[in-house]
């Protein structure tokens, strides 16, 4: 309480708001009474105090019930105050009676119901939530998504049939609301029908108050019947839960008893197993030593086989590498052939081009020679025809000489060009051939080196393989000899064991009669055997360097093992008898469990009979209720008739009194005053 009061005053200081004296006084009273109820009803709260109280309620974990009835809250104040309760985890009951909440209040209340997870009771009497249909639909959406509210009071909220239909939709989705008070609203016939349809699907509403809503009596009766069915259903569910809880407790107690018995049996069996283990440890130790020697030899063989596998894998890898290198060589050869074909094609093309160029040049030279011959013939004809024109001919000769010189120069240049082009083509071809030869030589050298390295690795692996095969042959021969010796020794031991078993069959029957004496004898034998084993171990430590002594020791150990195995057989027979007794006990327990199962089935049958009887009783009660409801209806009709008669009488009296007053002198005095 003091924390809430201190936080309220601190928030007032921080916000620069004067604390309201009535609120501080009420907080002081609640602190003195040590109550978890904050009663601010009748105190007018301003918007500043509402904002500060909202901030305080966000941090509050003390008050479980808050009463804000008749506080004259404004829309902003209600919005702030309810926003502070969105994420509150302590307030379970909220009273907002007579605050004239309208559209904003309904919207904020819908958000509160959608966010808050601890509110169980909400009182909204004497407000106006149903005036605005859109805001009331938001309130109904919040109610539909709420899973904690159990009691809702909406009396005198001006809810019409549209609001009732929205409430019906919310009730179809809500599964926790148990009590709903809708008295003194304007729900009407349509709203009553929608609520009736919703209650046919809702199974949680137990109590519904619908007085003063202009709803017909048949719909009211149907609503009462549906709520009655819901209450009876909840009552039967509670009874069935209680009965199942009792039966589960009984079954759990029986299971615990059976578990204890089973644990006791398991403890006895574990003790016997421990005794058997102690007796067999001494014999298993010697067998373990022999098995260790065999395992060591097996491990050596396994290591050799693993080495062989590794060498085989390495050989396979080398073969794969050789195949891959062969494939690479084939590819390189194919590429070389392709390159040679390409070079030959290029050479042919170049030769064809050079031949074409030479042909063109020869044609030009021939044409020039022909022109020269023609000119010479013309010169001779001119000399013959006219000697007078020698000067002209001389000039023509000079011109001819000049033209021939130029032609010769052109021929020389063309020849030089041909020779230079031929030289360039030859150099390019020679360079290409040298590069190809170098590449081929490098690839061949690389392949030869890789082949040499692979051959060397193959020779080494073959040598290792030969060595490993020789070692394997030696180890196999040694293992075969050792196995033959061991088999011979085991055959001797088995023959001795069979003879001794035949001799001890008769003695075992006598030992079964006197178990206690045999147990003492067995303990003595075990102690003697332990001593003999210690002596044998000492002898084995002294005679470990001698191979001949090892064989003698093995024979002695095998003889001891045969005696121990006979003793083991005797102990096994004794344990079998005890296990048979335990099996008998377990079968008796099984029979007891079957009896318990039969009892459980009988109890289930009794439960079924009780449920059937309960159903019959419920049907009888329903018939009685229907008869009582009919009686109530008749009484209500009579009461309505009485009310109508009384209203008629009152109207008659009023008319009579008015007529009497008007006829009396008092009426004359009162008329002029008016």
Automatic annotation (TrEMBL):
Keyword annotations of the record: Coiled coil, Cytoplasm, Cytoskeleton
Primary residence: cytoplasm
GO CC terms, sorted: centrosome; plasma membrane
PANTHER family the record matches: LEUCINE-RICH REPEAT-CONTAINING PROTEIN 45, NY-REN-58 ANTIGEN
Organism lineage string: Eukaryota, Metazoa, Chordata, Craniata, Vertebrata
Name assigned to this protein: Leucine rich repeat containing 45
Keyword Signal: no
Span list, region Disordered: 334-360
Localization in the cell: Cytoplasm, Cytoskeleton, Microtubule organizing center, Centrosome
Matches recorded under Pfam families: LRR_6
InterPro entries: Centro_Cilium_Assembly (IPR052116), Leu-rich_rpt (IPR001611), LRR_dom_sf (IPR032675)
Coiled coil, from the record: none
Statement: the UniProt record of this protein carries the keyword Coiled coil: yes
């Amino acid at each position: 309480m003091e924390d809430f009061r201190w936080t309220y005053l601190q928030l007032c200081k921080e916000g620069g708001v004067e604390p309201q004296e009535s609120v501080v006084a009420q907080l002081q009273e609640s602190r003195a009474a040590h109550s978890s109820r904050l009663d601010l009803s009748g105190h007018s709260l301003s918007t500043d105090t509402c904002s500060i109280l909202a901030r305080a309620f966000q941090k509050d974990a003390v008050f479980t019930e808050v009463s804000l009835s008749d506080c004259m809250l404004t829309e902003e104040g209600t919005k702030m105050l309810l926003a502070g309760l969105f994420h509150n985890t302590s307030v379970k009951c909220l009273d907002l009676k007579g605050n004239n909440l309208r559209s904003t209040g309904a919207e904020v209340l819908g958000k509160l119901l959608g966010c808050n997870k601890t509110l169980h009771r909400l009182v909204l009497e004497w407000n106006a939530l149903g005036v605005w249909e859109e805001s009331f639909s938001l309130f109904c959406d919040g109610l539909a998504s709420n899973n904690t509210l159990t009691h809702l009071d909406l009396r005198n909220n001006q809810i019409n049939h549209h609001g009732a239909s929205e409430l019906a939709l919310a009730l179809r989705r809500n599964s926790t609301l148990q009590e709903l008070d809708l008295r003194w609203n304007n729900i009407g016939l349509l709203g009553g029908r929608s609520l009736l349809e919703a209650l046919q699907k809702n199974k949680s509403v137990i109590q519904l108050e619908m007085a003063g809503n202009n709803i017909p009596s048949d719909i009211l009766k149907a609503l009462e019947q549906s709520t009655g069915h819901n209450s009876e259903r909840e009552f039967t569910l509670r009874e069935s839960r209680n009965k199942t809880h009792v039966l589960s407790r009984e079954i759990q107690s029986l299971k615990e008893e059976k578990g204890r018995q089973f644990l006791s049996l398991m403890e006895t069996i574990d003790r016997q197993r421990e005794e058997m283990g102690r007796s067999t440890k001494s014999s298993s130790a010697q067998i373990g030593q022999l098995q260790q020697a065999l395992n060591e030899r097996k491990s050596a063989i396994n290591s050799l086989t693993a080495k062989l596998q590794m060498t085989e894998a390495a050989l396979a890898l080398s073969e794969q590498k050789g195949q891959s290198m062969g494939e690479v060589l084939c590819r390189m050869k194919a590429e070389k052939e392709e390159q040679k074909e390409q070079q030959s094609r290029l050479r042919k093309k170049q030769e064809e081009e050079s031949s074409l160029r030479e042909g063109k040049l020869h044609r030009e030279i021939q044409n020039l020679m022909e022109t020269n011959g023609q000119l010479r013939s013309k010169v001779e004809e001119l000399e013959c025809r006219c000697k007078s024109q020698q000067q002209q001919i001389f000039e023509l000769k000079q011109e001819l000489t000049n033209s021939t010189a130029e032609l010769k120069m052109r021929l020389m240049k063309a020849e030089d060009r041909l020779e230079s082009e031929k030289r360039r083509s030859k150099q390019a071809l020679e360079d290409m051939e040298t590069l190809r030869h170098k590449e081929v030589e490098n690839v061949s050298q690389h392949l030869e080196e890789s082949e040499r390295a692979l051959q060397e690795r193959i020779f080494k692996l073959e040598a290792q393989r030969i060595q490993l095969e020789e070692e394997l042959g030696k180890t196999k021969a040694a293992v075969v000899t050792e196995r033959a010796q061991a088999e011979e020794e085991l055959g001797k031991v088995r023959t001795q064991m069979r003879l001794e078993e035949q001799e001890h069959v008769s003695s075992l029957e006598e030992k079964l009669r006197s178990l206690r004496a045999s147990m003492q004898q067995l303990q003595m034998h075990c102690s003697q055997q332990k001593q003999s084993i210690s002596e044998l171990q000492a002898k084995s430590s002294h005679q470990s360097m001698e191979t001949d002594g090892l064989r003698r020791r093995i024979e002695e150990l095998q003889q001891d093992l045969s005696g121990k195995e006979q003793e083991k057989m005797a102990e096994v027979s004794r344990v079998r008898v005890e296990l048979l007794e335990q099996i008998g006990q377990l079968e008796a327990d099984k029979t007891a469990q079957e009896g318990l199962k039969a009892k459980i089935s009988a109890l289930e049958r009794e439960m079924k009979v009780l449920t059937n009887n309960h159903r019959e009783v419920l049907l009888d009660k329903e018939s009685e209720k229907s008869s009582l409801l009919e009686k109530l209806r008749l009484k209500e009709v009579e009461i309505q008739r009485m009310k109508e008669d009384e209203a008629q009488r009152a109207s008659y009296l009023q008319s009579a009194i008015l007529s009497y007053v008007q006829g009396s002198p008092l009426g004359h005095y009162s008329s002029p005053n008016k």
